[in-house]
Amino acid sequence: MGLLCRSPAARRGRLLLATLCLSSFAASTYAQSKCTATGVMAGEKFSLSHCAVAFLVEPQPSVTLWFNESPIAPQEVEAFHASAYPSSLKDGKPRTMVVAAFCPGGGQVKAAAGAVKSMDVGFTHGKSAMAGAQWLIEAPKDFKVERISGDVRPGGKLSGRITGGRSSDGRPYAWDFTFDVTLPANEAASGIGCG
């Protein structure tokens, strides 16, 4: 009965406290992903230190990593969790970003370096539209999984390092992706096949 008789000021105080707690929880959820992507796109250097991850378990476990130059807004992270597709524009301007999608376990839930046979990778450079590229690349010709561990499942952890390079129309591309991410609670609507 004491709870029912509390003053409006006390209720507002509890509401404020609950809001602050939820905000802190949401911020810590987004802060759990740590990534870097460095290299060159068509000779243009890039260094990306913000990321988000989406995943799919059925029909085959896959992940999509979004490396971005600037912080990713929470609503964009949530949209990426659901779709596995980021927008290449921010406030109408092109972003510098890389999107890498692959099957960490080659079709299995448990990640294994030797199981990653291909990767869909897309590059966008905010200052050079001509540097953009998208490929389905093959290991070990185009990239190497230096290390990888974890599981593709709701709330699972995944960490690793993938390096590689190739050229396109005589323009060099090279990358070094490192990631330590916590997968979201829900699967995305799409992902990459492990074929």
The total count of helices amounts to 2
The count of strands amounts to 12
**Gap between N and C termini, in Å?**
62 Å
Number of domains: 2
Overall 3D shape:
globular
Query: Overall pLDDT, averaged?
Result: 86
Kindly estimate the percentage of residues that lie in beta strands according to DSSP.
35-45%
Radius of gyration: 20 Å
Assign a percent range to the helix content: 10-25%
Q: Give the low-pLDDT segments.
A: 1-31
**Class by SSE composition:** alpha+beta
Order of helices and strands: HEEEEHEEEEEEEE
Major sheet characteristics:
5 strands, antiparallel
Strands ordered across the widest β-sheet: 2-1-12-11-10
Task: Give a brief rundown of this model.
By secondary structure, this protein is of the alpha+beta class. The protein has helices at 8-31, 74-83; strands at residues 34-41, 44-48, 50-56, 62-68, 89-90, 93-94, 97-102, 118-124, 133-138, 143-150, 157-168, 171-182. A hairpin with a 2-residue loop joins strand 11 and strand 12.
Q: Layout of SSEs?
A:
Elements: H1 8-31, E1 34-41, E2 44-48, E3 50-56, E4 62-68, H2 74-83, E5 89-90, E6 93-94, E7 97-102, E8 118-124, E9 133-138, E10 143-150, E11 157-168, E12 171-182
Antiparallel strand pairs: 1-2, 1-12, 3-4, 4-7, 5-6, 7-8, 8-9, 10-11, 11-12
What does this structure look like?
- There is one protein chain.
- This protein is of the alpha+beta class and 195 residues long.
- The protein has 2 domains: 1-31; 33-182, no CATH class.
- The chain has helices at 8-31, 74-83; strands at 34-41, 44-48, 50-56, 62-68, 89-90, 93-94, 97-102, 118-124, 133-138, 143-150, 157-168, 171-182.
- The strands form 3 sheets. The protein has a 5-stranded antiparallel beta sheet, with no helix packed on it.
- The protein starts with 7 loop residues before the first helix and ends in a 13-residue tail after the last strand.
- Mean pLDDT is 86; it is low at 1-31.
